[in-house]
């Protein structure tokens, strides 16, 4: 990896506002090729990618992603799915008995889909194209699956929007390495360590503003009271699991 490529990773930004410049078919195919070259379990490639570029269909997807504008304004929307359907059919056609509709393979195919997605994001950014992950895909998995006509054994895992940046936002802050890296064995977090890690983080200007806008007194409450409250987490967990079972993915 060159220093330029490494710098692309270290300076990556989530891009939510896009210019009118179109992504060429050649560049989009390069991005997709980078995705399918990513690591995966047993070279089974238990994922599928749904490409959406027509404005009418992007607008329909936008409604299912809580009307987040980047879905409509992006040049391309890619919905990446955990998919054991294709491999099941291949096995059956070859006289082999498939057994991949269980929790293990739901997890494996989800991991494969996620690795594929990140490879596409990295490729896009190397080409000067911005990307944004949409976590709302798991909240609205069933209606998204209906819109995209996903058969059984296929479930949406993540969505990314792609387009040339309209502007360059500031870098999003991250916790320091000492907060997430453990040497040889997991070192559990003492009260003092938690205080050391998060107190400094909460004093960053961007984080302080984020807390102020959420009308909370610390970052933890922004997450538990505003962004990801328990009632929503429980409800979306239930609906996603029920849909996974309906799709015979586990």
Question: Helix- and strand-based class?
Answer: alpha+beta
* Through-space gap between termini: 38 Å
Order of helices and strands: HHEHHEHHEHHEHHHHH
Please state the average pLDDT score. 95
Biggest sheet statistics: 4 strands, antiparallel
What's the helix count? 13
- Overall outline: globular
User: What's the total number of strands?
Assistant: 4
The helical percent reads 40-55%
What is the percentage of strand-forming residues?
5-15%
In the predicted model, the low-confidence regions spanning at least 5 consecutive residues are: none
In spatial order, strands of the major sheet run 1-2-4-3
Query: Rg, please?
Result: 20 Å
Architecture overview:
By secondary structure, this protein is an alpha+beta fold. The chain contains 13 helices and 4 strands. The chain has helices spanning 3-10, 25-36, 55-64, 70-73, 85-93, 103-126, 136-139, 141-148, 177-180, 191-202, 205-213, 219-227, 230-246, and strands at residues 47-52, 76-83, 130-134, 154-163. It has a 4-stranded antiparallel sheet, with helices on both faces.
């Amino acid at each position: 990896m060159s220093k330029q490529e490494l710098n692309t990773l270290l300076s990556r930004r989530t891009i939510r506002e896009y210019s009118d410049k179109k992504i060429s078919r050649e560049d989009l195919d390069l991005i997709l090729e980078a995705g399918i070259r990513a690591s995966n379990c047993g070279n089974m490639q238990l994922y599928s990618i749904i490409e959406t570029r027509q404005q009418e269909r992007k607008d329909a997807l936008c409604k299912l992603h809580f009307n987040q504008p980047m879905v409509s304004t992006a040049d391309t929307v890619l919905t990446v799915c955990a998919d054991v359907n294709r491999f099941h059919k291949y096995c059956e056609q070859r006289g082999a008995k498939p057994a991949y509709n269980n929790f293990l393979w739901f997890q494996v195919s989800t991991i494969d889909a996620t690795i594929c997605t990140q490879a596409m994001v990295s490729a896009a950014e190397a080409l000067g194209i911005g990307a944004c992950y949409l976590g709302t895909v798991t909240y609205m998995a069933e209606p998204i699956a209906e819109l995209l006509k996903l058969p059984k054994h296929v479930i949406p895992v993540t969505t990314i929007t792609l387009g040339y940046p309209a502007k360059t936002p500031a870098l999003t802050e991250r916790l320091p390495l000492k907060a997430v890296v453990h040497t040889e064995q997991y070192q559990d977090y003492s009260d003092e360590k938690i205080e050391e890690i998060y107190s400094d983080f909460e004093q960053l200007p961007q984080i302080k503003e984020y807390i102020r806008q959420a009308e909370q007194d610390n970052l933890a409450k922004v997450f538990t009271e505003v962004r990801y409250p328990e009632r929503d987490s429980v409800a979306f967990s239930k609906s996603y699991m029920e849909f996974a079972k309906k799709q015979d993915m586990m």
